[in-house]
Amino acid sequence: MPVLVHNMEWKIIKMGMTEEDRISQLPDHILTSMLSSLSIRQAVGTSVLSSRWRDLWIRSISTIDFHPDNLLDAREYDEELVNRVGKVQMLIISCKRLLNFILSGNQFLRQLPVDHKISKFRMNYPFRRNRYGLILDQWIHFAISRGVEELDVDLLSEGCFDYAGEHGDHVEAYDFPCDGVVPYSTTSDASNIVLPSLKRLRLNGCIFSQNNLSNFFYFTSLEAIDLQHIDFQSGATVETLLPHCPNLKWLSFYQCTHIFHIHIRRPLTTRLKYLSVKSCFDVNEIEIDGVELATFEYSGNLPTFSFKEVPLLLNVYFCILFGTSVGDGTVLSLPKLLETLPQLEKLLLRCCCDIEAEELPERLPTFQNLKHLAVIEIKVLSRNLMWIAQVLKASPLLQNLELHLDSYDYQEEPKEIERPPRVPLDHLKEVVISGAHGYLSEIELAIYVLNNAVILERMTIDPYWRHYLGDGKWQYEDHQPEDLWTRARRDKWAKIGRQRVLDYLQQEVPPDVELIVL
Fold first, then answer.
1. Cα–Cα–Cα angle for 347, 352, 354, nearest 5°?
2. Which of 296, 332, 347, 448 has the fewest CB atoms found within 10 Å of its own CB?
3. pLDDT, tens digit (0-9, with 9 covering 90-100), for 253-304
4. What residues does 384 pair with on adjacent strands?
């Protein structure tokens, strides 16, 4: 497939071949396993090595990833170079790039046998409905007809610059699901109808319309749907989607528009375990009734919540980004969310208000079964953290506390350590504070816990911040590239912050508590 293979890539592959060529003597299953870890361009490139390798790459392909890095020569479309040319030349390059992307994709698919099974198909390019949308229809149909189980269509990739798509007039988003998802026949007389076997669907940058949602009727095997930047148009609702997916267990919405209410109840769905609604600012009502939901994650404006007959809902992530009135915040809104969830065991609060301290409601509900509390503090100024002590008092069975801080460096005013009246924390065993600077607000809370936790076993103070990704997954700051600000903050921690924390806490820590200051 020469269009996908650059001469230099062929030379690099060839360099590894010796006259004896022991690699080619390996069994097919080992070679195909090796090839499966390569990109499309690299795998296809091995076909020119010898007759032994000609068709091996085809057998190794179970995942198809149509990304510009896999189908195009990056040197011909360097974005830095393109940005230096004029608008007309940029438009020409963008169109040429799109055509080459389509030609390479079509050429690749034509080489796959009719009976070739595909497990995952990923398309990453800014296609539009009126700009080769039919090509995407054909590719999706191809994947469906090859028994694909995971479909990932990303039309808003940051790595895919599209001058015409960004600046052109009358550009329309791509409709999904297209007619390519309907059942297909393995015989010419349509006597053998096969339903799609799709289990996981991820869409980014499409539109849903009422007419097209009827095609979800054929997605009876779907278990997970991840929708990002989806515009629900022409009366399309979540309720019209759910009945077509009886096996759905995982559902996520991120920055979707024109979703005004989310009603999830029997018999629309019965197996849903995970629901995430984040930054969907049109949502004003969420109702969950009679389903097996175990985890609910929400961030956005404050909607109306209703939970009925959800005994398995034990895990909640909650963040109010913009209150509907003055004083609305994450903690202040807790009673509205949790008054019908007495069984809650794990609560993750994300607080991002630009205020001195999180505002508390007049009456904080008692979390009778809460065992794990995680607080993510996003702030730009100094902030009092002692409001967390009030939440601890309202959580009599709490065993684990996490505090993840992300704050800018600031000049701290001298002050005395605040010591509220003692309230025994009878079950708290472990505390983790990440993103620590060594500020007095952090030290105050740590001292409060050390003085009140009756059976505390371990406290860990970590300068590296932890970022919550969703669905129980975290990203650690020490795994990310270090910028100047991060380096300066870590240097300050090493020189000042760490020792300051030790000086205060070593005077307070009981002998049977393990104090770890990283």
1. 145
2. 332
3. 999 999 999 999 888 888 999 999 999 999 999 999 989 999 999 999 888 8
4. 357
Distances from the Cα of 18 to the Cα of 13, 15, 22, 49, 284, angstroms: 11, 8, 8, 11, 66
- Quickly list H helices, 201-355: 238-241, 334-338
Q: Which residues of 468-483 are buried (b: 16+ CB within 10 A; e: fewer)?
A: beeeeeeeebeeeeee
| Spatial separation of the C-alpha atoms in residues 48 and 13, rounded to whole Å | 9
What gap in Å lies between CA 377 and CA 385, rounded to an integer? 9
- How confident is the model over 410-423, as a mean pLDDT? 78
Under 8 Å between Cβ of 275 and 297: yes
Q: What is the mean pLDDT of residues 199-223?
A: 84
- Name 153's bridge partners: 123, 203
Query: What is the average per-residue pLDDT within 157-185?
Result: 55
Q: Cα–Cα distance between 94 and 160 in angstroms, integer?
A: 10
Burial string for 312-341 (b: 16+ CB within 10 Å, else e) reads ebbbbbbbbbebeeeebbbbbbbeebbebb
**pLDDT tens for residues 22-39?**
666 666 556 556 656 666
CB 500, CB 492: distance < 8 Å = no
- B/e letters for 367-388, b = 16+ CB within 10 Å, e = fewer, are bebbbbbbbbbebeebbebbbb
Q: Residue 152 CA to chain centroid, in angstroms?
A: 13
DSSP β-ladder status, 466-470 and 473-476: antiparallel
pLDDT at 356 over 50: no
DSSP 97-145: HHHHHHHHHHHHHHTS-TT---SEEEEES--BTTBTHHHHHHHHHHHHH
Residue with tokens 């975290």: 474
405, β-bridge pairs: 377
Beta strands at 473-476 and 200-204: parallel, antiparallel or unpaired? unpaired
Mention every residue, 6+ apart, whose C-beta is less than 8 A from residue 470. Answer: 252, 276, 278, 297, 317
User: Residue 488: CB partners within 8 Å, gap ≥ 6?
Assistant: 409
Q: Which residue has the higher pLDDT, 339 or 129?
A: 339
Q: Is 304 helix (H, G, I), strand (E, B) or coil?
A: strand
Sign of CA dihedral 334, 338, 342, 344: negative
Residue where the block lists tokens 């009827």: 214
Q: Which of 218, 184, 178 is nearest to 198 (CA)?
A: 218
d(CA 445, CA 448): 5
What is the pTM (predicted TM-score) of this model?
0.84
Tokens of 255: 């920055």
Q: Mean pLDDT score of the chain, rounded to an integer?
A: 79
Structural contact between residues 256 and 228, judged by C-beta atoms closer than 8 angstroms? yes
Collapsing DSSP to helix, strand or coil, 419 comes out as: coil
Q: What's the DSSP call for residue 395?
A: -
Span 437-449, pLDDT tens digits: 888 889 999 999 9
